[in-house]
Specification:
Length: 743
């Protein structure tokens, strides 16, 4: 009853009692309730026989055209035993799927026959690289080349031959969607459905050297118009394709090896900068990367003078909190192997955050001289090492940034690891180091997922009289399954914890979090696929040094559901608190005085299925805000008339009323994506808000003449809109070509 009283607004009178009994409540009643619920769940078998796929060796040349007409395809043995995960778990797939695998000395080929009784109704609206594959008909492939049931490569295509890939680690818990491998696929629409022909060079994959390797492999097919999801193995709703521990086996490979040891990727860039009332400036730059395979599973990368002019602009964010904003990394160099440097302190407290390198606090660019990086796996050891040197700029000196991450596989799916991060500049040093442990089990009580673990980290900063060091730590428990989804976390960061190459949303805190979602499927309600009820979800923050309240956020969801047609709905009730130790200027001239504030919000969310030609989402949140009120309105609308064009627009408004003053924040964004074919695509992105009073435009074209080689053409413009004027502040135009040579 206490949690419902908190949500009902009686928290002020209960606060002292809550502080004294919080740990008992957190680890007692909540965990007991969750354990009781998941012990009631049943387990389902997920293995479909046969669970092995035999790869057929060929010396016949394979023409990549999607027709699958070579004799080798006729000789290969197929698998066809696909089972539904959605909408009817355990049923045989309504539309047959056939998969074959062949290989030669250089490449792995995967052929897919996707049968469909109504091929004219295929959903295929995307064609660009790294497309939103979850909205289209598709075929997805996961390959565990290490055979360790932890790591894998994900490859996806749709009937338009659009490509998506990702690196999978921690048995699907970590997905690096920004990895871009060198591979290709062709598709063909037919009278019986569609076919796909994948060509994956062995040089793209890391694998142990073995005369007769046995890899993990699995397949998923999605038929969007009927919301059907079919898997070869691991079809339980408590599983995902990315959980490679549930994959089948790929056998028959023999005497395969890397076909290349050295990869060179030089680049050249040229452009022009046209600032307002200043002289036009012509720019150019050259540099590149060298990748060398020390072993089949360890890659050494050397970069010289990297340039990231082709990267899309950050999204502008208006900060209405007193905590740091997070901007995602978009530079390909740092994205490629980011999974090797993940550490167990969570998203809001990262000892290593790559945007600290080469980007100043004002988000201007700092040149990078170069660096070296080693990534990969040796036996059961995962290793990531990186060191980069930046140039001096204005008052910022040249700085060396380095990170070492070691992680050891233990037990069946678990790991232990350490990390060390350094920032070395003249007269000052900052170090962050730590250790973490994670236990994973994807076969708990048969097919349920469970994990728990923790991490501890310390920072050291020279030049301080006191607080040279500080500790941070985390303990978590996670039970992410279809009916019961529960997680609990305890975080702590001391006042002196200072990871200068990391990210911290807030400092000097302890956080207690618990989240329980109950997601039943009631067949009698025909149009609803699944309900999502949330009895509780809360984050309780204390100042670590004084143990006083810092923040509180809680959410109760009496109703949420996903329909069989793909719509999603949520109704939430939220209770929040902020304890300000000093005055906080939230807006120009609007200052919220120190003190403790409690308020309640109500929230509605609705999102339509993204596979339609027109889809959208609306969000409405209303209620208290400090000692006033706030209404938040958000909307997004997307139109995709065909596979070549996608146009979207979004708008958000914060209408804030406070005794100290009223103000309204408007944020607009618009985007047009286009694709001529899967190798030639681009976008036009525009954004504006009335806080910055700047319109930013980013126009970007990407051409891939051959896999691994890229040409970019980018135009950026900024317009000043202060006092309703519309003044062009700057224009930059740049072209960049990245070649790829394999030796």
């Amino acid at each position: 009853m206490l949690l419902f009283e908190l949500l009902g607004g009686k928290l002020l009178g209960k606060m002292k009692k809550l502080k004294n009994n919080f740990l008992h409540l957190f680890f007692g009643k909540i965990v007991f309730l969750t354990l009781f619920l998941f012990l009631l769940q049943t387990s389902n078998a997920q293995v479909s026989m046969p669970d092995s796929l035999v790869a057929y060796h060929t010396t016949e040349p394979i023409k990549l055209d999607g027709k699958l007409s070579e004799e080798a395809w006729n000789n290969a043995v197929p698998i066809t035993n696909f089972t539904q995960r959605e909408l009817n778990e355990g049923d045989t797939a309504t539309q047959p799927t056939k998969i074959k695998v062949i290989f030669d000395d250089k490449n792995l080929y995967i052929g897919c026959w996707c049968y469909d009784d109504e091929p004219e109704k295929l959903t295929a609206n995307k064609m660009r690289r790294d497309f939103a594959y979850w909205t289209d008909d598709n075929i997805e492939i996961i390959i565990d080349t290490y055979g360790d049931k932890r790591n894998g490569y994900l490859f996806v295509t749709n009937p338009n031959a659009a490509r998506f890939d990702a690196m999978i680690s921690r048995n699907g818990s970590s997905r690096n969607r920004d990895w871009n491998g060198v591979w290709n696929v062709k598709t063909k629409k037919t009278s019986f459905g569609w076919t796909a022909e994948f060509e994956i060079p062995f040089s793209t994959l890391k694998f142990r050297k073995d005369a007769r390797p046995q890899w993990g492999i699995n397949f998923e097919r999605n038929i969007r118009r009927i919301r059907e999801q079919d898997l070869w193995q691991g079809y339980s709703r408590d599983a995902d394709l990315e959980q490679v521990s549930r994959a089948g086996k790929l056998v028959g490979l023999k005497n395969i090896s890397k076909t290349s040891l050295l990869e060179l990727k030089p680049y050249g860039i040229a452009g022009v900068e046209i600032p307002l009332n200043e002289k036009t400036k012509f720019t150019w730059n050259i540099g590149g990367d060298m990748n060398f395979l020390i072993t089949p599973t360890l890659k050494l990368n050397i970069t010289i003078n990297p340039d990231f002019a082709q990267v899309e602009s950050d999204r502008m964010q208006v900060n209405l909190t007193r905590f740091s904003l997070y901007f995602p990394e978009k530079r390909e160099f740092f994205l490629e192997g980011k999974n090797y440097f993940n550490f167990g302190l969570g998203h809001s407290m990262q000892p290593f955050y790559s945007r600290r390198i080469g980007i100043a606090p004002d988000r201007s660019i700092i040149p990078i001289y170069g660096g070296v990086r080693l990534m990969g796996k040796a036996g059961n050891t995962n290793l990531g090492i990186m060191s980069l040197q930046t140039a001096s700029k204005d008052t910022i000196p040249t700085i060396n940034y380095s990170v070492i991450r070691w992680k050891q596989d233990i037990l069946k799916e678990s790991s232990v690891g350490i990390i060390a991060v350094s920032k070395l500049e003249p007269g000052k040093q900052n170090f962050t180091y730590g250790a973490d442990f994670t236990y994973f089990n994807s076969e708990f009580r048969g097919d349920k997922n469970i994990s728990f673990g923790g991490a501890i980290s310390q920072s050291y900063t020279s030049g301080f009289e006191d607080r040279k060091t500080g500790l941070a730590s985390r303990i978590f428990f996670d039970y992410p399954n279809d009916l019961v989804d529960f997680s609990a976390v305890w975080d702590r960061a001391e006042l002196g914890f200072n990871p200068e190459v990391g990210f911290m949303r807030r400092r000097n805190y302890q956080m207690y979090m618990a989240d329980l979602r109950i997601k039943p499927r009631i067949k009698k309600i025909g149009f609803i696929r699944q309900f999502i009820f949330k009895p509780f979800d809360f984050n309780y923050y204390l100042y670590d040094d004084t143990k006083q309240l810092q923040s509180f956020w809680s959410e109760f969801r009496p109703l949420g559901f996903i329909t069989k047609s793909g719509e999603q709905f949520e109704f939430n009730i939220q209770r929040k608190a902020e304890n300000l130790l000093e005055d906080f200027e939230i807006h120009d001239g609007v200052v919220i005085t120190e003190g403790e504030y409690w308020f309640t919000d109500w929230e509605l969310q609705l999102e339509t299925f993204q596979g339609r030609p027109v889809y959208g989402a609306v969000f409405f949140n209303w209620g208290g805000f400090y000692n006033g009120t706030r209404n938040v309105y958000e909307g997004e609308l997307t139109w995709q008339p065909n596979r070549f064009i996608r146009i979207s627009a979004n708008y958000a408004q914060n209408d804030i009323r406070l005794p100290q003053g009223n103000f309204v924040v408007h944020e607009f964004g618009g985007r047009a994506d286009f694709a001529i074919n899967p190798d030639l695509f681009g976008s036009l992105y525009g954004q504006w808000n009335n806080e910055d009073n700047v319109i930013l435009f980013n126009f970007r074209v990407n051409w891939i003449p051959t896999p691994g080689t890229n040409f970019y053409f980018v135009v950026n413009q900024g317009y000043d809109t202060f006092e309703h004027h519309f003044t062009l502040e700057y224009t930059t135009i740049q072209a960049k070509l990245i070649w790829r040579f394999v030796i």
